Amino acid sequence: MNKATYTTDVPGDRLSLLETLSSRQRPTKVMLIGGTDSGKTTLLTFLANGLIERGLRVAIVDSDVGQKGVLPPAAISLAFPEGPFSNPSELRGAAHYFIGTTSPGQYAGEMAVGVKRLVDIAIKSADIVLIDTTGFVTGPGAEMKRLKAELVRPDIVVFLEKGGELEHLRNLLAPYGEILRLPVSPKVRAYSREERREIRGKKWRAYFAASTPVDVDLREVIPGGTSLFQGRPLTPEEVELLSSAFGWLVLAGWKGGRYTVVKSDVESSPRHYDRFALHAVDFEKLSNLLVGFIDGDGLCLGVGILKWISFSARKAQVLTPLSPEEVSKAVELRFGRIRVLENGEELGLLRRDEL
């Protein structure tokens, strides 16, 4: 269920890095950076097992939300391995930070804050913190890495690259930690988009295998990550006016800085409107939407799938593996940007501004 598996059949430079980390002053923070299919998680697994064998307390911060090892998907997770492990999917998360998507290009801030929050927790009890990152290394991905490094201040930043393709990113991160370059192992293989989707599907299924529906009172658990429920409810006259003006069935709406409505199209031809004055959310986009249960510290207790919502009663039904006791600790239900079924089928990603 994970691309990376533990192996000791590694190039000599990996063994040298292991010895370097074993002798460093503690605690030490190590950030791993490389493009897609560069072997970051394989390297992390090797280093973690080797350090554990040497009696060191290791923490893993898994921020590769697109190909997560430590469940749940679409969140950054912290794990403390208690012994040898074959791949990160065997590890149980100790803390999580909700991102809500497997494609975090529009969530650079949340990605950086999440890594920082979990590293701060890890460093209190770990000798070495290993930070896995996404393969998103150009454009917004480069800025995301810079934000992470600026906040975390890693002691070592390990770059996995085939040639000099990450030179710009290395120069960008050089002020924030010692830079170490390693060549991509010739044993690393590329995975197709379909293979990646299949791997994610297995992880979704594993996470939601023992799920049950829970009712959430949105008057007590605040909806977050969305413009829904912000402002006063629309009057019946406003609902009727908007419905007739745009050919919608307006299911709910609010007036704050602008009008926000949840709608279903009645007419086949969409009508244009000023998006600065009106924000329209398609009702179907809320179906099977990933949501996160957030505690009073801003950390994620676990995730769920939104199955039903009543706007008038402000109640929602969410499918989740969390126990009622765990759900009772949530103060916020944060809306994500991916729709997924409990059988692992992904129904699609949403843009940040769609909700």
TrEMBL record:
GO BP of this protein: RNA processing
Cofactor entry: a divalent metal cation
Catalytic reaction equation(s): a 5'-end dephospho-2'-deoxyribonucleoside-DNA + ATP = a 5'-end 5'-phospho-2'-deoxyribonucleoside-DNA + ADP + H(+); a 5'-end dephospho-ribonucleoside-RNA + ATP = a 5'-end 5'-phospho-ribonucleoside-RNA + ADP + H(+)
Name of protein: polynucleotide 5'-hydroxyl-kinase
Annotated InterPro entries: Clp1/Grc3, CLP1_P, P-loop_NTPase
Keyword set includes Nucleotide-binding: yes
Residues covered by the Clp1 P-loop domain: 34-209
Keyword Nucleotide-binding: yes
UniProt keyword annotations, A-Z: ATP-binding, Kinase, Nucleotide-binding, Transferase
E.C. number: 2.7.1.78
Function: Polynucleotide kinase that can phosphorylate the 5'-hydroxyl groups of both single-stranded RNA (ssRNA) and single-stranded DNA (ssDNA). Exhibits a strong preference for ssRNA.
PANTHER family cross-referenced by the UniProt entry: CLEAVAGE/POLYADENYLATION FACTOR IA SUBUNIT CLP1P, POLYNUCLEOTIDE 5'-HYDROXYL-KINASE NOL9
Molecular function as annotated in GO: ATP binding; ATP-dependent polynucleotide 5'-hydroxyl-kinase activity
SUPFAM superfamilies: P-loop containing nucleoside triphosphate hydrolases (SSF52540)
Class of the enzyme per the UniProt entry, highest EC level: transferase
